[in-house]
Amino acid sequence: LAGEWLTATANTNMFTYEIAPVFTVMETILLKKMCEIIGWGETEADGIFSPGGSISNLYGILVARYKQYPEIRTKGMRALPCIVLFVSEQGHYSVKKAAAILGIGTDNVIEVKCDERGKMIPAELEKNVLQAKRKGQTPFCVTATAGSTVFGAFDPLHNIADICEMHKLWMHVDAAWGGGLLLSRDHSYKLSGIERANSVTWNPHKLMGVPLQCSAILIREKGLLGACNQMGAGYLFQPDKLYNVDFDTGDKAIQCGRHVDIFKLWLMWKARVGICHLFSYPMYLDIQYNKFHFLFGCLFSNYSFERDQELQKIAPKIKAQMIEEGTAMISYQPCGDKVNFFRMVFSNPATRQRDVDYLIDEIQRLGKDL
């Protein structure tokens, strides 16, 4: 919070070093560190902070398309074949939104089937890629998910990377939710294979508890982000400045004005705020409240549950009463043949066991008379 307050007080911009010298250097250092944690330590990776995971995913797809078809910058989509990309059926909706924004079209986003725990099935991905080629479509990108929204599932990244390498496809990993696990000795194995990705979305404002907004798009190949987006505005990005103009990162971004999101992350990084205790709460719920049915297994700090078929019908009513009384808020949703199960996601480092007990007690109290 101190970082956010000081950032707002400074009210500066992030497009050039001369406007935000300290913050620009901080961003460069932390982006490099994040790339090293992913496993790109021996390469010259690149990245930038963006306004949220949806925009970071858009960057990943944008750069993937530019890498394959650099003529897109000048000639537009009419110069390209019918390109398609792949994402799991449990992937974030921002992938389709990016396809719509970029002119690719949502019909050209192919959803790959998942197993019963929400993980992409590699054999289905391979089948979809081959089918697309037979139809005359041109696959160019696969978006894997590391920490899905509903299940908290992690796609099998090594298997997906093998398929991407075989078919020469860009591999983007949406680790907006699960990226923070890379900092955990006990849980980082869930993201094994992320080092083989071409780009990664990582949101410190989610699992790491950094105040909104704080999201990074990381690109394994240095120079692509700038080549894809730069316009070289003469009033900002002069090449003959008195300092190293590599610190003028603004031309790598889609927008011109860019909020300072790095300072709060820098302070928290130095403070080493811990979040791994959050992963114990889904298991605590499963053991302590066995009247509730844990739907998808403990994959992450997501907890999806129901008590019985009748509860599915009244979940919206329970939530409505919670909001009206101002006691709590919990999400519900359908998924496949499941109707309106509760979905609880633990991401606040301040969460304690008594908070979990209180929420379950509220569900039982409000549901008793329905």
UniProtKB/TrEMBL annotation:
A Gene Ontology molecular function term of the record: carboxy-lyase activity
Protein name from the UniProt record: Glutamate decarboxylase 1
Gene3D superfamilies, per the entry: 3.90.1150.170, Type I PLP-dependent aspartate aminotransferase-like (Major domain)
Any Pfam family: Pyridoxal_deC
Cofactor(s) listed: pyridoxal 5'-phosphate
Residues the record lists as N6-(pyridoxal phosphate)lysine modifications: K206
Organismal lineage: Eukaryota, Metazoa, Chordata, Craniata, Vertebrata
One record GO biological process: carboxylic acid metabolic process
The keyword Lyase appears for this protein: yes
Keywords: Decarboxylase, Lyase, Pyridoxal phosphate
CDD domains (alphabetical): DOPA_deC_like (cd06450)
InterPro entries (alphabetical): PyrdxlP-dep_de-COase (IPR002129), PyrdxlP-dep_Trfase (IPR015424), PyrdxlP-dep_Trfase_major (IPR015421), Pyridoxal-P_BS (IPR021115)
